């Protein structure tokens, strides 16, 4: 159906159930099962002649985000390059800070893995739909319904060939600010499990959440908030970052403090060091606050390195 062929030097090279019977901890089971799901997707892609890459780091591919938030991020230049033709797939570890307030609800993950399929002027929307129906079928999974933007309803509905109900949704669009496209989304048990975007009308950008698929096919319960924070912290550290006052280091520091305030912990020296650091800052703040009443949060941070919201927040 697709080929791993790229024209242009700037282009990159390119009924199953996963239950485990071994006696393992819940965390070990979740890790191994997720790994088997990714491996199964890899094997499926290779069987179609599509090159596959597994990426565990959350380091971004450009300066638009602090962390990689989608498997397509590294491929953005290829969507608008007319000389780039071919198809690749990957599993990309992602981190989305925008979901921080909603983690733990079973549908939002601060840290998650995206199963991706990206085609530049090779696959059609119909090809991508067939690809994903076939892959989901190997997991024993079928969407309850799909959504399509009204502007593409007449054109794309026949591509599903009556396999699933189709619902119009005017929010089925995607844009990174420069590249835009209509999309169609797959739903199961009221949760979006993935979507197919048609950037520029000539390319394919597909992302399916491995964590959501794992929950559906294996019944794995979602991580609670503390577990989600711990996994995100661990992944940031594994990606080569350390706590600091700027950018990724600042985010890591904030997550460590959030976990501590909830009464949680992570087995890493950075956690111990950050808690000791916070105790020193709190002591300094208590000494100085009466001498500097009414000073702004910016002044406290720039002058003393004190995050005022942390000083005023209750300790765990």
Radius of gyration: 22 Å
Main beta-sheet strand count, sense and barrel state: 9 strands, mixed
User: What do we call the CATH homologous superfamily of the largest domain?
Assistant: Bira Bifunctional Protein, Domain 2
Q: What is the strand content?
A: 15-25%
Average pLDDT for all residues? 85
Helix content: 25-40%
Number of strands: 9
Give the overall form. Answer: elongated
How many structural domains can be distinguished in the coordinates? 2
Ends: how far apart? 55 Å
Give a brief outline of the structure.
The N and C termini lie far apart (55 Å). With 316 residues, the chain is α+β, with helices and mostly antiparallel strands. It has helices at 26-47, 76-79, 125-138, 153-156, 210-218, 225-238, 247-261, 269-288, 297-304, 308-312; strands spanning 51-55, 86-95, 111-120, 145-148, 166-168, 173-175, 180-188, 191-199, 203-209.
Description:
The termini are far apart. This protein folds into two domains: 193 residues, Bira Bifunctional Protein, Domain 2 (BirA Bifunctional Protein, domain 2, 2-Layer Sandwich), CATH 3.30.930; 88 residues, no CATH class. The relative contact order is 0.12. The protein contains ten helices and nine strands. Strands 1, 2, 3, 4, 5, 6, 7, 8 and 9 form a nine-stranded mixed beta sheet that branches. The protein is an alpha+beta fold.
